[in-house]
Amino acid sequence: MLTIFPDYMFRRYRQGKRIGHEITLFSVWYELRYGIVTCLMLTISLVTVVFYYHPSTTNVSSFFRTVTILSESGGRVEEVYVINNQEVNAGDPLFSLDASSQRAAVETAERQIEEVLAQFNVAEADLAAARGVVAQAKGALDQAKEELAVRQTLLDQGSTAVNTRDVEKLENVVETRQGALDAAKAQLKAVEAEVEISLPAAKATALASLKQAQTELEKTVIYALVDGTVEQFALQPGDIVNPILRPAGVLVPPDVGEGRFQAGFSQLSAQVIKPGMLAEITCMSLPFTIIPMKVVGVTDYIPSGQFRPSDQLLDVQDRARPGTLNVYMEPLFEGGTKLVSRGSKCIANVYTNNHDRLHSEEMSTGKWLFLHMVDTVGLVHAAILRIQALLLPVQNLVLTGH
User: Fold this and answer.
1) DSSP state of 55
2) Which of 8, 121, 213, 346 could bridge across to 60 with cysteines, CB 3.0–4.6 Å?
3) Is the pTM value of this prediction over 0.70?
4) Tell me: the pLDDT tens digits for 375-397?
5) Tally of CB atoms within 10 A around 343
């Protein structure tokens, strides 16, 4: 446009030369070789400056979180409480599994508690009986000791009504009754230990078993843990649900990741894109609209370099596909991306800003001209983005086959 077209107009209409005669491909090249080469070099330089200092990418999307609807254990669906695409709140029941075995476990645990409580009543009766036996043995021992003391006193006084044989028999009786008292006290301690230690421990175990059984029973009803919309949910009573092989559906929470976009730029942009830079995006879900953005974060790693330990060594040639630089962007103005659907496919431009450097005193003329050109060609890139925004719906129709 700057070289060939004006030259052709001059030679054709001013000098009267004709194409194919005086005007040929060789004559045009020979006469304009310096101008054509200069224009090509300027064009390449301009394109390089535009796409290096003002990076662009078509890999932009707003990612959002999803929650898999799973049961903690596998089982057969007993009842379904929601339908697909229904909005639910945290704590709402979604579906329940067959809980016959869990109900039986709860009932068994309740019977164990009743059994332990019955053992408490029996133990209380045994405790009262053991105390009675101790009191009876103690009374008999005291009576034998008193009678022995009387006989021993009479024997010491030389009375003929008592002999040594009678005293020895009473001593044996006292020892026997002392043994009976010790046995009764031991029995009492055993009953007290059962009432104070064994039975409370058995009761606590039974209560823990009941709590565990009730927990397992509660797990048969699956609740929504967050607010959201139920998607890909087609359960019917009788279906089998497995937490590993067959999830029940997906729950999409609202407003998670809204307004935050993740873009994948070429690795050449790693030294250019910095947090705080201005950007613009246009999305398929909101055509003919340019949304001003700002860069809020740039990762210092390339995701394609990730590896997991395995039994095989990593071969670098298997990673021939270059990764992208992850850049996070948010709308410059609040609510700027409110009309953009989450997960939309977008195009983004990021613009450098050398305003502060241009106004610094330590700036040479050549560098000032270069930085001024860098900021000026950003207008070219912005114009390109607006053309892409106009062509994006057409591109979408072509890609979808309409």
Assistant:
1) -
2) 346
3) no
4) 666 666 677 777 777 776 666 66
5) 11
